[in-house]
Amino acid sequence: MAAMTATINVMLAIHGKKTTPIDLYKPLRHYIAQHYSEREAQDAEEDLQAVQHMRTDIERASDALEARRDLLQQYFRALSVMESRFPISNEKEHVNTLYFTWYDAFKPGKKATQQNIHFEKAAIAFNLGAVQSQIALAADRSSPNGLKQACNSFQFAAGAFSFLRDNISMKASGSSSTVDISVECAGMLERLMLAQAQECFYEKVLVDNKPSSLCSKVAKQVGLYYEEAYAALILPPLNQHFDRTWIAHVQLKAAQFHAEACYRVALQLHDQENVAEEIARLKAAGNMLSEAKKSGKGVVGPLLDAVSKLEANINRNLDRAVKENDRVYLMRIPPVESLPSLPAASLVKSAAVGELLDASKEKMFAGLVPDSSAKALSKYTEMLDEVIRVQAEKLQQESEIARVKLREMNLPDSLLSLEGSTSLPEHIRDEVEAVQIDGGPAGFEAEMRQLKDLRRVNEELLVQTEEILEEEAREDAQVRTQFGTRWTRPQSSTLTKSLHDRANGFAANLKQAAESDARIGRTIRDNAPLMAILNARPIEASLPTLGRPILSLNQNEDAIVGTLRQKLAELEMLGSERAGLEDMLKDMKRKDNILPKLMTTSGSYEDLFKKELAKYDPVCAEVAHNVEAQERLIQQIKPPVKEHTSKLVLLFLNIEKFGKTLMKA
After folding, report:
1. Please, which residues have CB within 8 angstroms of residue 493's CB and are 6 or more apart in sequence?
2. Of the candidates 81, 63, 49, which has an alpha carbon nearest to the alpha carbon of residue 16?
3. 326-380 pLDDT, tens digit each
4. What is the separation, in whole angstroms, between the first and last Cα of the chain?
5. Backbone angles phi, psi at 103, to 5 degrees
6. Could you count the other beta carbons within 10 Å of the beta carbon of residue 664?
7. Which superkingdom does the taxonomy of this entry point to (predicted)?
8. Could you give phi then psi for residue 114, rounded to 5 degrees?
9. Residue 113 backbone dihedrals phi, psi, to 5 degrees
């Protein structure tokens, strides 16, 4: 029986793609000067130099593996920043003098050239996966830390190839492209890297002397991953692209680990004295290896040695099991094809490299904002404003509903009268004192006059601003007429669009403020007789003295009133919660800047908007919960209509009587 010892298996690393030197600096700087301004080209000087320096370092390919990995990630993020700012193609208005050339990693004699930044990004993503595989292969898998590093790096390599397949390959494809960055090749390389990552786990479970059943499941999944890679390799366009030794290596690896799974489960079956299935599994394993070795021409010696060693172990155990069955068990051996498939256990997955390659936090070329991105940002802002407006209206509406409902029931004033005290609640007394310090009702009128003066000044400033913008537009039109096509500065309407939008916003705010001031003024005038009480000092001197109502409800008055006070306290807490939710929404909006994401996204703006607006869903859910909670509380505060209805109605009528007396005062 074979010992459970670790074996360092043969694995593959991917060679990186080679490229030719290019000058990014001059074409990009020329585009900035032509489509933005010379001043902005000067401001972007440092970023232009940085991009050129990164590209030059990538062309040399002489750094240590970890440093090269970091460089590739940094340059990929830079390309994402450039993508929305520098359209690269053969069109006249684009960056049309920039050509990217890359050689095929598996056919170094073949190369492709494109005026397409996605072609450059595809090559960088491919090389990122390649360098991760090289880091994995360079790790010392004979040590626990080295084995862990290799496993993680293979998973990151798989993640890079998966990212290439899902996000870039289709955009870089075409007649002038290379097979190595195609969807088919990227998918095959992802499965290959996962197979090797899972293989690292297999080496670990052997070192840790894990049960044969677990070893079998892990080995089975290794075989499945290799099998998926092999299936892609024998189909177009890969079947005519890869060297036969590559295909033979992957095919033999798949057979090796399918056989390994059978071998390991046979060890478990032997311990369980299930000799019949043990023999069948060992025969199946032997058949797999025999068939695979026929196509193993050109495979490296260490792999053939590992397969031969496994085959020897299988044959030795098979001979022993057959003899035991012939002498002792005499069990019928089931046909190999009748055996159920062995279970597999995947312990690896493609690492998420999207966050590592996310350029939304990059500051490079931040001063260059294309018109398309500005329009997209404006649309998102409108969508966000609508979300905030709807939720704010819900919160304000619920506060008003609570106020009206409580006023209809003369609450909480009626409850305060039941205390038999002429003292005001502390929060009301504080508000009254604040009003009196500011001059009482007369102070309101002074405040309204001041608001009117401030509004007039703001309106004058807005008119002056609009006149300046109109004058600037006239001057631009005049100069454009005078110089014609020689006047290359963007139109005034484009440059001042944001200023006009802000001016319109200020005008709308001023109009809304004027309407609000008018409503407040009417309210103050309509309630002037009632507000005269605010001039009294102390304010308690103007309150009526009310006695506790004499009404018996089976001695339950205190309990009922206590419950009512508790419900009102809960209602007040909901009101405070609404204020907090409104502040939270405003704060989230203030911090919500998606422009960097707009500038780096290569997908649909609508998808990005949907994802970003989803941040507000939890707060919207809290708003809805608050509204529902208030509706339940108000229903509970209303006099019950079933048991003890008549007595409770009498109590509420009594409370209402004292409330009306208080309101008249």
Report:
1. 473
2. 63
3. 888 788 899 988 889 999 999 999 999 999 999 888 888 888 877 666 667 777 7
4. 101
5. -95, 150
6. 8
7. Eukaryota
8. -140, 150
9. -130, 130
